[in-house]
Amino acid sequence: ELISKGNHRHYMLKEIYEQPIVVAQTLRAYLQRMEEKVTLPIPEFDLSAIKRVTIVACGTSYYAGMVAKYWFEQFARVPVDIDVASEFRYRAPVMEDGGLMIVISQSGETADTLAALRHARSEGQTIAAVVNVPTSTMAREADLLLPTHAGPEIGVASTKAFSCQLAVLAALAANLAKAKGKLDEAEERRIVRHLAEAPASLNAALAYDESIQTMAGVIAAARDVLYLGRGTDYPLALEGALKLKEISYIHAEGYAAGEMKHGPIALIDDAVPVIVIAPSGPLFDKTVSNMQEVQARGGKVVLISDYDGIQAAGDGCIATITMPKVHPLIAPLVYAVPVQLLAYHVAVAKGTDVDQPRNLAKSVTVE
Ligand code: G6P
Questions:
Q1: Which residue is closest in CA terms to ligand 1's atom 2?
Q2: Could you tell me if the CB of 157 is within 6 A of ligand 1?
């Protein structure tokens, strides 16, 4: 029953829709709701001596890691290195005592990520593994197993595993901050409350599915698409572009909004839709000014923001996607929904094999 498509046409759509439930399920293992405290599956695991974090993963899991880097540095003030697993070993990474290596993997079997784990282990690092398959090799080899409770993910393009990874990583960042004495009780309570709101906000985001489907035609007609974001929305822009590439075969690039003027701006014309991810918040105005640079050059912009953001900057966009207004901590989880749905509907419009895209594998067990 768990791996039927239910009423959905594809596994991917079913998995997108499961996110409120599986994120809630995942958070239950990391939050004590009554006490308003964060916790780990091994509550006594001591993170206080961690001096540095290295995050290694591939594909969508890597983008979850990129979001987490912001959180670890912001909350715990611990420096974070991050690499794609296939590059990690080959740059002779410097790993000192007191380092925590975090591998992130839906399958727990990706060959490059597993090799990175073993390399870090041989360099004396403590290993934490954020994995969705509790019986996987990475789960077995880690010192600290941090399961995502997303349930089996069948669609090759990862969706619900990503949002569950983000939930675990946010809770881990808070746990690390607490262990390092960087999080007082009031802040801990606030973090727990914000995270606990994520499932309801994910539901609210899913309610915009129809309007996303309606505008998917614009993107389906494009040959190239650009995704822009700033801060934690930058990894989401990368994830949005990856999703489009994977299942609709449209060439897409994700870019840090402020970096656009150093290259991609040369591509702007009315044939390249630019999708801007900009929830209202401290970085909103900066991203909007990058968006206006695109519009001034005749670029067609799709703005994904909340009601306030769209009121402030939606004029002149060819389409807007409204998201619920959420705290910046959970924005990456919530804004994952429209980028997933958009890729899904574009792929359906193009008639591709959504669940089994050409040339891609669910789990890559060769280097
Ligand atoms: C493949 C899948 C992606 C996934 C990546 C990493 O490329 O198609 O969806 O993000 O592997 O997989 P992992 O199991 O390590 O998260």
A1: 362
A2: yes
Whole-prediction pTM: 0.97
Task: Work out which ligand 1 atom sits closest to the CA atom of 110.
Answer: 15
3-state DSSP helix/strand/coil % of the chain, to nearest 5: 50, 15, 35
Q: How far is the CA of 232 from the centre of ligand 1 (A)?
A: 20
Ligand 1 contact, 58 CB (< 6 A): yes
Q: What is the pLDDT of residues 295-345, one digit of tens each?
A: 999 999 999 999 999 999 999 999 999 999 999 999 999 999 999 999 999
Q: Which two tokens stand for residue 207?
A: 């309610």
Tens digit of each residue's pLDDT (9 = 90 or more) over 5-59: 888 999 999 999 999 999 999 999 999 988 999 999 999 999 999 999 999 999 9
Residue whose structure tokens are 């808070």: 174
For the CA of 158, the closest atom of ligand 1 is 9
Q: What digits encode the pLDDT tens for the residues 85-113? A: 999 989 999 999 999 999 999 999 999 99
Distance from residue 61's CA to the centre of ligand 1 (Å): 7
Residue 299: exposure state from Cβ atoms within 10 A (0-12, 13-18, ≥19): buried
Do the strands 80-84 and 126-131 form a parallel or antiparallel pair, or are they unpaired?
unpaired
pLDDT of residue 2: 54
Taking the C-alpha atoms of residue 231 and residue 138, their distance in angstroms, rounded to an integer, is 29
pLDDT of residue 241: 98
Through-space distance between the first and last CA atoms of the chain, rounded to whole angstroms: 34
* Burial of residue 94, with CB atoms counted within 10 A of its CB: 0-12 exposed, 13-18 middle, 19 or more buried: exposed
Looking at the CA of residue 85, tell me the nearest atom of ligand 1.
15
- pLDDT tens per residue, range 218-241: 999 999 999 999 999 999 999 999
DSSP code of 96?
-
Do 95 and 56 meet the contact criterion of CB atoms below 8 Å apart?
A: no
